[in-house]
Amino acid sequence: MKLGKVKHTIVDRSIVKNLKHTRKEVLEKPGVGVDAARIEMETGSTIVTAIATVAGKDRFGMDLAIHRAVNNVYVKGGRPIGVSLAITFPEFAEEARLKEVMERANIVCAQLGIDIIGGHTTVLKAVKEMVITVSAIGEAAVSNEEYKVDRSQTKDADIVLTKWVGMEATILLTNAKMQELNTRYTKTFLEGGSRLYEHLSLKPEMDAIKEESYLFLHDVGEGGIFGALWELGEYLHAGMEVNLKNIPMKQETVEVCDFYDLNPYMLQSGGSMLIVTKAAGKLIDKLEQAGIKAAVIGHLTDGNDRIVKNEDETRFIEPFRFDEIYKAL
Question: Which listed residue, of 173, 179, 196, 296, carries a Cα 20 to 30 Å from 165's Cα?
């Protein structure tokens, strides 16, 4: 298998098809496009859980892992409460590194208004770099009936993208490859890419649209915007038409991708979210009032084709295969 997120076909063949769904409390079986689990308790309340793992990633590893897990709780209709952290270090790691990552964990959780509710720390010969696994838990912000997706209503719905694609990868590359990139770009310019970590949380989006109407949410992560669009289509059993020119991207991402010959549309994009809605104008107004970039990048169709148009060129969106960041890291 290739580095990074396992291909959708392998996940479906070797994991999803072998899972047994026996508990009535678990409202949805895991699958492509399912970001987190919703579990209905006997008391009538619903909890939302999600998990994320990050290896290495230098000083931003803890930030990325927490945001990935917590963002998945948000898009599944949850209000995050806390995270549990499992940190595995190689045997050459020093205690100062543990203190550093826990300081970052405290800072990120304080910004999100959540607690660190547990965890496990170990040192193993089997690992060569730090591995962080974050389990996030929250309570449902909307009822299970409100959360259910009526796929019959999604035809011709717009697809809205928040913020910019490639943010997560730009953060990692401008941090890890600063010296190399500095041979072409100024340090000030590259530091602008590193500072994109300030936009990794989906909390601002959720706060801005909590009173608005939308049909479905999906965060953009590993595999980039093309991977997220494929997952969206799989979950909703829908086709789509997307305009490449409408997909927002930071100039720092453009330059880093040019330097390493990477496809920015297949690049880790944590911090961005796809919103399926029939009220795109109102949603975008709310988001922009909150200082959040948002744009309609396409719409759903009732066919099977998932296509991207770039002026006179048309290409088909394919299942996720490989995140471009692994070409450079």
Answer: 179
Instruction: Give kind and range of the element (H or E) at residue 23.
Output: none
Give dist(CA 151, CA 188) in Å, integer: 46
Q: pLDDT above 90 covers what percent of the chain?
A: 67
Q: Grade residue 5 by pLDDT with cuts at 50, 70 and 90.
A: low
Cβ neighbors of 74 (< 8 A, separation 6 or more) are 80, 202, 203, 205, 206, 217, 219
Element (H, E) at 26: none
CA distance 71 to 136: 9
- The SS3 of residue 216 is strand
As a whole number of angstroms, the distance between CA 42 and CA 250 comes to: 46
Residue 233, classed as helix, strand or coil, is helix
Helix (H) or strand (E) holding 22: none
Q: Strands, E, within the chain: which ranges?
A: 37-40, 46-55, 78-89, 115-123, 131-140, 158-162, 216-220, 239-243, 272-277, 294-301, 306-310, 313-316
